[in-house]
């Protein structure tokens, strides 16, 4: 009987933790130590890389085909891949639309494999509204970004005015998820 009681208590505790969001992705110690943050402005299609409160690099990007494709809010990078595969297309081949790197961010607690900052096999799409929700970068730019930012780095996505002042939620709040996939 005591084993059954412990099992029931464990299952109830686990259920409570999952329902209340206690297992949400968090900012890693490496991300805190690096002090990097990312701002993506969907209105201008620019990505700003911050170190501390200073913009140290600006990149041109492509965002969702319409305003509802790319989610807005503050999200942690939780999955990083070199030469990521896409559907049935292996990584590293010219046909792969994800390019050379994947920086997946967690939206509403997902695994970081649905939305991400990635390269592209279509460099002419950069600066436009072209994706199914992800953030596209030139391959040389996404390699540079990938090499700089650790997992846990916060990504703030918005469509407002950029004053080069990071105003994302430091508590890793999430916003509405738009159901789409790159």
Structural overview:
The protein is an alpha/beta fold. The chain has one domain (24-158): L,D-transpeptidase catalytic domain-like (Beta Barrel). It contains three helices and ten strands. The chain has helices at 2-20, 29-34, 139-148, and strands at 36-41, 46-51, 54-60, 63-64, 73-82, 101-105, 115-118, 129-131, 135-136, 154-158. The protein has an eight-stranded mixed sheet. Strands 4-8 form a two-stranded parallel sheet. Strand 1 (36-41) and strand 2 (46-51) form a beta hairpin. The termini are far apart. The model is unreliable at 16-25 and 173-182 (pLDDT under 50). Pathway: Glycan biosynthesis; Cell wall biogenesis; peptidoglycan biosynthesis. Belongs to the YkuD family.
The dominant shape is globular
- Please write the CATH class name: Mainly Beta
Q: Bin the strand percentage.
A: 25-35%
Radius of gyration: 18 Å
Tell me the strand order in the biggest sheet.
3-2-1-10-5-6-7-9
Helix content: 10-25%
Classify the fold: give the CATH topology.
Answer: L,D-transpeptidase catalytic domain-like
**Tally of strands:** 10
CATH architecture classification: Beta Barrel
* Poorly predicted tracts of residues: 16-25, 173-182
CATH homologous superfamily title? L,D-transpeptidase catalytic domain-like
Structurally, how many domains make up the residues?
Answer: 1
Main sheet makeup: 8 strands, mixed
What string gives the helices and strands in order?
HHEEEEEEEEEHE
Let me know the average pLDDT: 83
Total count of helical runs of at least 4 residues: 3
Pathway: Glycan biosynthesis; Cell wall biogenesis; peptidoglycan biosynthesis
Family: Belongs to the YkuD family.
Pfam family, one: YkuD
Keywords: Cell shape, Cell wall biogenesis/degradation, Hydrolase, Lipoprotein, Peptidoglycan synthesis, Signal, Transferase
């Amino acid at each position: 009987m005591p084993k059954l009681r412990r099992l029931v208590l464990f299952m109830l505790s686990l259920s409570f933790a999952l329902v209340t969001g206690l297992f949400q992705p968090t900012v890693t110690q490496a991300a805190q130590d690096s002090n990097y943050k990312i701002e993506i402005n969907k209105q201008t299609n620019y990505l700003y890389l911050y170190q501390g409160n200073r913009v140290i690099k600006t990149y041109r990007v492509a965002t969702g085909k319409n305003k509802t494709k790319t989610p807005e809010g503050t999200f942690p990078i939780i999955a990083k891949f070199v030469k990521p595969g896409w559907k049935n297309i292996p990584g590293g081949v010219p046909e792969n639309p994800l390019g050379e790197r994947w920086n997946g961010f967690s939206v509403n607690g997902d695994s970081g494999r649905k939305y991400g900052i990635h390269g592209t096999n279509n460099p002419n799409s950069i600066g436009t509204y072209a994706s199914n929700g992800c953030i596209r970068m030139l391959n040389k730019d996404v390699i540079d970004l990938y090499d700089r930012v650790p997992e846990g780095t916060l990504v703030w996505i918005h469509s407002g005015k950029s004053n080069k002042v990071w105003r994302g939620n430091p508590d890793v709040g999430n916003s509405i998820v738009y159901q789409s996939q790159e």
